[in-house]
Write a structure and sequence with these properties.
By secondary structure, the protein is α/β, with parallel strands linked by helices. It is 29% helix and 25% strand. It has a nine-stranded mixed β-sheet, sandwiched between helices. A seven-stranded mixed β-sheet has the order 7-6-5-3-4-8-9, with helices on both faces. A five-stranded antiparallel β-sheet has the order 18-17-19-20-21. It is globular and about 70 Å long. The N and C termini lie far apart (78 Å). Bound molecules: adenosine-5'-diphosphate. Adenosine-5'-diphosphate (ADP) binds at residues 180-183, 227, 299-302, 320, 322-325, 355, 411-413, 425, 428, 517, 519.
Length: 534
């Protein structure tokens, strides 16, 4: 016995494990899609898995091989799920193109990734034509729906003999490609492996993480074209949760109707989506019958504390998570630990509004020039992470400086950590405001402003200032019918922050510009208000 090596089976962690399981053990579970004309179509994991395998055979038959990239330009629906499974079953990687980007940028990304084929929604053909006009080169174009002059997806699915052999997959093979959305620079490719995706899915579902089970019905508002809809389609297939895809209808009323009709138990989306939902619920009390205990996973930007409180009042629980394209994305989740379950309400809400603690298998540290920051909830540094689903490099080896010599990925997020191990993001490095040699956290000011009853949304940016180098400026959207003055908002902030943190100016606007991923577009705000203090 002594020194004997492990005696366990060496099973590679590959996508066929998920697809086979969904087909065999979850075959009757529904996958629901809302179409552009608002009609609903229903299929099952059994049918999706069978069609995904047909797609894989068709791709292999058509010459797609190991390591190739096949792009998708699609909304969230069951055919996109077939691509999520079928393309990697063929040994290739699914490259989800972000339809919210400019056509020039989509073309750049598709060419940079070396996408060979593309599968497109018929309703996105006008956009697709612009992407091609911008120089994107695809060998083959396959269209879901009315194909126009292109090849129909349904015919492509039937194009290979059933005997076509699928390749044997290795767990380190590429499964999917996502590009960072370029909020802070040129988009860069991250290539997920089968192994990283499966491990991420397994940890994503555990109770202390996002907590998903077969009893759940999940509606990913978060698009399948951005960070694989946070990996949730794979995680749902793994546990057999029902999936409800909203297609292109992402406004609050349409989402709430779908939540009601499909008995959704978990939603996932960025804070703006939930802000819209809160507004619709407040404006129409009793209009929608939602599942008791509905959970909403929120990430992508900070969930304001007030929003978490408001949804509790409405009988829904927000689960706050942090992550990024480079981290698959889930890196931390905020769950009040048992030893603080009895803490006062304010403490618990403060914890839930933080980004939380790392999920199993993810390790993090926060460093500044003096080294690792102490757990004093005060000292800030750059958040760094490592783990089996964190990128080790960008495709093409771009920006190697994002990794430290001792193996950490530099997130570009500024954070601090408290005695309970909860991290709180205070800014992105690029969004930090430096006033008179001191740092001011835009995210904390925003969070607090959004706690004022009249404020719907608030973004704070640094604007050049002759004396202080930069001073904060708040851009605020009020709730419908609400009024408040700049001085009242400053009075609201004053008890919580040092005087020099208070924004010198508050600008009231109808809407704050957003990135393709629904975040405040701070580069544009800085540009717009560049001369405000001069
Ligand atoms: P991009 O970098 O182009 O914005 P990502 O979608 O990968 O694309 O965004 C990751 C970033 O989003 C993180 O680095 C962080 O700044 C922000 N983020 C994600 N989740 C949260 C959160 N819960 N709170 C605050 N910021 C978040």
């Amino acid at each position: 016995m002594a020194n004997e090596t492990a005696t366990m089976m060496d099973v590679p962690l590959t996508i066929d494990l998920v697809v086979d399981r969904a087909e065999r053990w979850m075959r009757g579970t529904e996958v629901v899609s809302r179409r552009p004309d608002k009609s609903i179509t229903r299929t099952t994991y059994g049918a999706v898995a069978a069609r995904a395998r047909k797609l894989a055979r068709a791709l292999v038959h058509a010459g797609i091989g190991r390591g190739d990239r096949v792009a998708t330009l699609m909304w969230n629906h069951s055919e996109h799920l077939e691509c999520y499974f079928g393309i990697p079953l063929a040994g290739a990687a699914t490259h989800t193109l972000n339809l919210r980007l400019h056509p020039d940028e989509i073309a750049y990304i598709a060419n940079d990734a070396g996408d060979r084929y593309v599968i497109v929604d018929d309703c996105l053909l006008p956009l697709f034509d612009k992407v091609v006009a911008a120089g994107a080169k695809f060998e083959r174009v396959i269209v879901v729906g009315a194909p126009g002059t292109h090849e129909p997806y349904e015919r492509f699915l039937e194009s290979a003999p059933a005997s076509t052999a699928l390749p044997k997959l290795a767990e380190t093979d590429a499964l999917a490609v996502c590009y960072t959305s370029g909020t802070t620079g040129k988009p860069k490719g991250v290539v997920y492996s089968h192994r990283s995706t499966i491990l991420h899915s397994i940890v994503e579902v555990i109770p202390d993480s996002l907590g998903l089970s077969r009893a759940d019905t999940l509606l990913p508002v978060v698009p399948m074209f951005h960070v694989n809809a946070w990996g949730l389609p794979y995680a749902c297939a793994l546990v057999g949760a029902k999936l409800v895809f909203p297609g292109p209808h992402l406004d609050a009323a349409n989402l709430l109707e779908l939540f009601q009709n499909e008995k959704v138990t978990v939603g996932a989306g960025v804070p703006t989506i939930w802000l819209g939902i809160r507004e619709a619920l407040d404006a129409n009390p009793g209009k929608w019958q939602l599942q008791p205990g509905l959970r909403m996973i929120v990430g992508g930007s900070a969930a304001p504390e007030q929003m978490i409180r408001d949804f509790d009042r409405l009988g829904m629980t927000l689960i706050h998570a942090w992550g990024m394209t480079e981290t698959s994305p889930v890196g931390t989740v905020s769950r009040v630990p048992p030893h603080l379950a009895g803490a006062d309400e304010d403490t618990r809400y403060r914890l839930r509004a933080k980004q939380g603690t790392p999920t199993p298998l993810v390790d993090l540290c926060i460093r500044n020039d003096a080294g690792d920051v102490p757990a004093d909830d005060k000292t800030t540094g750059e958040l760094m992470v490592r783990g089996p689903w964190i990128a080790a490099r960008y495709a093409g080896g771009h920006s190697p400086e994002r990794w430290t010599a001792d193996g950490w990925f530099r997130t570009g997020d500024v954070a601090r950590i408290d005695e309970h191990g909860f991290i709180q993001l205070t800014d992105r490095v690029a969004d930090q405001i430096k006033s008179g040699g001191e740092w001011i956290s835009s995210q904390e000011l925003e969070n607090s402003l959004m706690g004022h009853p009249a404020v719907k949304e608030a973004a704070v940016v640094g604007v050049p200032h002759a004396k202080w180098s930069e001073r904060p400026l708040a851009v605020v959207v009020l709730k419908p019918g609400a009024t408040v003055t700049a001085d009242e908002l400053r009075d609201h902030l004053a008890p919580k922050f040092a005087k020099f943190w208070l924004p010198d100016a508050v600008v009231f606007v109808e809407a704050i510009p957003r990135t393709s991923a629904g975040k405040f577009k701070k580069t544009e705000l800085r540009d717009t208000y560049r001369d405000h203090y001069s």
